[in-house]
Amino acid sequence: MKRRSLSPLLSIMNLTRIYTDGSCIVKKKSGGWCFLANQCTGRRSSQAFGMCTKLLTKESGWLKGTNNEAELQAFINSLEWVIRSSSRECILEFYIDSSYVLKHLYSFTLLRTENLKLLGMIDDEKQLGLTGIIGQGRTPNHYEELWSKVTHLLRDVAKRHTMYIWWLRGHLPNTHTHARYHNEVDKEARYQASTHQNKN
Fold first, then answer.
1. What is the Cα–Cα distance from 19 to 58, expressed in whole angstroms?
2. How far apart are CA 180 and CA 190, in angstroms?
3. Cα-only R_g, the chain
4. Does domain 15-195 have CATH number 3.30.420.10?
């Protein structure tokens, strides 16, 4: 797969960062999901986050299911938003804290999707237990419908955009790069799961 190189300025001006998270109250199987998308403006920020950003959207919802389903649904809805909203080519950075989602993206979906322009990267493959499964092409044996959606959406998104997918440790202090926004979607996902836990 060929990687395209862009100038730093062009990369910043066309950069959209998307943070996704899911939560679940296990006993109730009440799941909440949320994603947030920021566009980098190219201007330097005085804060610890590096660049000024503009909020493009923040969406959330509820589902009856497990934490992994909620994590997947957040990622799916973010991809659907990209398809609906992005009229021009851009660079997409996804930040996910779910080791379950990342493992299967690497072992199945991404490596078997030929028209992805760029594979994402994570901070520490060993920490996620990815060593030894990357490239084996293993199909997830549960949530097949959701994973089918992920596969088709990734193909559609990759036809126009360049994608990076990063693993971000959950519940870091807000002073950590990107943690402020990920903690925001985590809080909203937990709120959705809690608020709707008595739904049938």
1. 9
2. 16
3. 16
4. yes
CA distances to 14, 122, 124, 143 from 127, rounded to whole Å, are 31, 10, 5, 24
Contact 30, 2 (CB under 8 A): no
Instruction: Yes or no: say if 113 and 155 are a contact pair by the CB < 8 Å rule.
Output: yes
Question: What digits encode the pLDDT tens for the residues 34-67?
Answer: 999 998 866 554 444 455 678 899 999 999 999 9
Residue 108: CB atoms within 10 A of its CB come to 19
Q: Return the number of other C-beta atoms located less than 10 Å from residue 171's C-beta.
A: 9
Instruction: Output DSSP code: residue 108.
Output: I
What is the rounded CA–CA span in Å between residue 21 and residue 95? 9
β-strand partners of 167: 96
Neighbour-count burial for 123-146, b at 16+ CB within 10 Å, e otherwise: eebeebebeebeeeeeebeebeeb
Query: In 18-143, which ranges are continuous DSSP H helix?
Result: 67-85, 99-104, 125-128
For 142-188, what is each residue's pLDDT tens digit?
788 888 888 888 888 878 888 888 878 777 777 776 888 999 999 99
Query: In this structure, how many other beta carbons lie within 10 angstroms of the beta carbon of residue 34?
Result: 27
The amino acid occupying position 52 is C
Question: How far is it, in rounded angstroms, from Cα 18 to Cα 29?
Answer: 26
Spell out the domain ranges in the chain.
Answer: 15-195
What pTM was estimated for this model as a whole? 0.78
